[in-house]
Amino acid sequence: MAFQETIKFIQDKFKSKDFIPLHAPVFIGNERKYVMDTLDSTFVSSVGAYVDLAEKIMAEISQTKKAVAVVNGTSGLQIALQLAGVNTGDEVITQALTFVATANAIRYNGAEPIFLDVDYETMGLSPKAVSEFLDEFGEKRESGTFNKKTGKKISACVPMHTFGFPVHLDELIKVCSAWKIPVVEDAAESLGSFYNGQHTGSFGQLGVFSFNGNKIVTSGGGGMIVTNIEDFGKLGKHLTTTAKVPHAYEFYHDQLGYNFRMPNLNAALICAQLEQLDRFLINKRKLADAYSEFFKTQSLAFRQELENTKANYWLMCLELENLEERNAFLKVTNEANTMTRPIWQLMYRLPMYQDCFRDDQKNAEYLEERIVNIPSSVIL
Ligand SMILES: *Cc1c(COP(=O)(O)O)cnc(C)c1O
């Protein structure tokens, strides 16, 4: 029967005939030690040294000046967009082929997503689609770029590095710079992914990572805003800690802030996980190489990193022939306890985003019908 070889290969790789998840976390370093340390010290919550340490490590890894630890990637995106200058009534360019959090973060700021197509090869926002949209609808004014059809300000652009494969960052940054539109990278999936030797998340004004349980490293729940703009770092910290003005005992908050700070307990976990990141990356690359060799023998298209990029191989994927083959693959593999998942449904299929502007979406719709994720956990 079709795909039996694939199921067998995956079971052999993961040495299991039981349920094989898409991505399971592994805790083989200092996780217990650091988490216990927060319990022993009683500093589990909003005060503690692990938050500062996690921020320091993440600024280093992402090659940025400032990192702000937050409760999850979604709230990180929400704040990053606010810092970039997104306001109620604005428009924000992004891709429809993404996890819902990207679009939600735009809406939380009272702005409307503009869904533009992805590139076939990166599965992320297409610089060409952005350029064409702006050539047709963009109008430069003193206070920024406006959509001449709707009259609304286009206040940010949010590319997302799908499954850890970087978008064409140079071209995208070039287009957005020409139109003076700030770029906020949704780098939730791309910790450990590089473009021309530079870490994803460090190209835009701001970048956001997620440490959710299914990501390459996890803090249980958590995220990180990174930026090379010192003021954004400072204001980001302030906004995510209820905008409290430091004082020995008085409570004074100088603007509408949020309780989005990462608790020390979660920060302890991510510090230990980040120590393992290089090992995880090497390990996942080995699995990707093995998949690549195997799928050649099956005439199945395994997605590999593009030239001048280094992917983290967070969730590995296959491109199937068509929707029927995709559906057959999902059915057979899941019935065999081998977890596989389709890529997300495009955002404009969801009720809250069905009326948003979108371009032709040729590549997004093609990929939507064909891309599936296969088990991608770190194998020890
Ligand atoms: C995981 C993810 C997020 C959100 O992260 P959370 O930490 O779960 O809030 C945002 N965008 C993308 C593309 C993601 O994959």
From TrEMBL:
<dbReference type="InterPro" id="IPR000653">
    <property type="entry name" value="DegT/StrS_aminotransferase"/>
</dbReference>
<keyword id="KW-0032">Aminotransferase</keyword>
<dbReference type="InterPro" id="IPR015422">
    <property type="entry name" value="PyrdxlP-dep_Trfase_small"/>
</dbReference>
<protein>
    <submittedName>
        <fullName>LegC family aminotransferase</fullName>
    </submittedName>
</protein>
<comment type="similarity">
    <text>Belongs to the DegT/DnrJ/EryC1 family.</text>
</comment>
<dbReference type="InterPro" id="IPR015424">
    <property type="entry name" value="PyrdxlP-dep_Trfase"/>
</dbReference>
<dbReference type="InterPro" id="IPR026385">
    <property type="entry name" value="LegC-like"/>
</dbReference>
<dbReference type="InterPro" id="IPR015421">
    <property type="entry name" value="PyrdxlP-dep_Trfase_major"/>
</dbReference>
<dbReference type="Pfam" id="PF01041">
    <property type="entry name" value="DegT_DnrJ_EryC1"/>
</dbReference>
<keyword id="KW-0663">Pyridoxal phosphate</keyword>
<dbReference type="GO" id="GO:0008483">
    <property type="term" value="F:transaminase activity"/>
</dbReference>
<keyword id="KW-0808">Transferase</keyword>
